[in-house]
Design brief:
IPNS-like_sf; globular; alpha+beta; Oxoglu/Fe-dep_dioxygenase_dom; iron; eight-stranded mixed sheet; Jelly Rolls; single chain
Length: about 350
């Protein structure tokens, strides 16, 4: 299997292969806006689950505002140890350090293969290749992960167990912020049996990072995506027409809303457009993202409780499985996939 990491290490690159050079929008630089971390919404999970009703109510309101106005927030006081997060990142590095023959069994062809290892986004349709290797594992309702390196699977399983609890509380808070019953999203989206895709991204160092892109502007499928990264940045979100580099608070999770939360809320909560830029000439960026969605056969449509005469239905229902197939079969391009099911 082809590995961009191995290619970079073996060739001592001084120039970028032409099939990796991105034609960037001329407005991109003018759209870049340096927000201070404090300007990005911060949600305190300890307040969200607090027994003090005022604290909980205020945090639910903040959560709703973040989902409506940003589609993105940093989560603090979440109860997942920094040690476990560091072990996940370290183990992820060890996986990408494996030789090609040790990873060849994970070269999947089908979007629903339990484990897939590859490069770019979809090399069959990408007009320009992206500066990225990746590992994708479905970790719920059945857990899958590579058996190598030693201890990798166990570390990922422990991590997934912990963040499932976090996401469960966030979805309860989001339900309440919409004026719905606390377990509305859990029940309507079959979350207990839902689909969870863990994606580990490896962005190798690049001699001319300004010429390449890790991942282009896009939105995620699913309801929420939870992400950690190593010390090297690269995530940017689009807000009010500006690209905002995200500099996480220490030991925080980065959370973004996905297309299916936008569908479920009939557009009240928008999925956030984001991208991964390559910034480092000497070191690799690693990020670990987990996308949470319903069961693959759940038809996701706007919640009837949120529809009114003044807020008519905006999206047609679609099976989660069909939506993923649609997104994964074409190039990543902002909200192009979501646009196809707008009414």
């Amino acid at each position: 299997m082809f590995s961009l990491k191995r290619f970079v290490e073996s060739n001592s690159l001084r120039s970028i292969p032409s099939n990796y050079i991105c034609q960037k929008n001329e407005d991109d630089d003018s759209m870049l806006y340096l927000y201070d971390a404090q300007n990005i919404p911060i949600i305190d999970l300890s307040n969200l689950i607090s027994s003090h009703l005022d604290d909980r109510f205020n945090e639910i309101q903040k959560l709703g505002d973040a989902c409506r106005d940003w589609g993105f927030f940093m989560l603090i006081n979440h109860g997942v140890s920094e040690k476990l997060r560091e072990e996940v990142l370290r183990a992820s590095q060890c996986f990408f350090d494996l030789r090609g023959e040790e990873k060849k069994d994970y070269v999947g062809e089908n979007v629903f293969d339990p484990i897939r290892c590859g490069t770019s986004f979809n090399v069959k349709v990408d007009k320009t290749l992206y500066w990225r290797d990746c590992l994708k594992c479905y970790v719920h309702p059945h857990f899958h992960a590579p058996s190598k390196p030693l201890g990798f699977s166990e570390t990922l399983e422990e991590y997934v167990t912990k963040i499932n609890e976090v996401i469960g509380e966030l979805l309860k808070g989001i339900s309440l912020s919409l004026g719905l019953e606390e377990n509305y999203i859990h029940k309507s989206m079959n979350i207990e049996s839902g689909s969870q895709l863990l994606v580990i991204n490896y962005y190798p160092p690049c001699p001319k990072p300004e010429l390449v892109m890790g991942l282009p502007a896009h939105t995620d499928h699913g309801l929420l995506t939870i992400l950690i990264q190593n010390e090297f940045g690269g995530l940017q979100i689009e807000h009010d027409g500006k690209w905002i580099p995200v500099n996480p608070l220490p030991n925080s999770f980065l959370i973004n809303t996905g297309d299916h939360l936008e569908i479920l809320t009939n557009g009240k909560y928008k999925s956030v457009v984001h991208r991964a830029v390559v910034m480092n000439k000497k070191a690799a960026r690693i990020s670990v993202a987990t996308a949470y969605g319903p069961t693959l056969d759940t038809i996701v449509r706007p919640a009837p409780e949120l529809l009114t005469k003044d807020n008519p239905i905006t999206y047609r229902g679609i099976k989660y499985r069909e939506y993923i197939q649609l997104q994964q079969s074409q190039q990543l391009d902002r909200k192009s996939c979501l646009d196809r099911i707008r009414i």
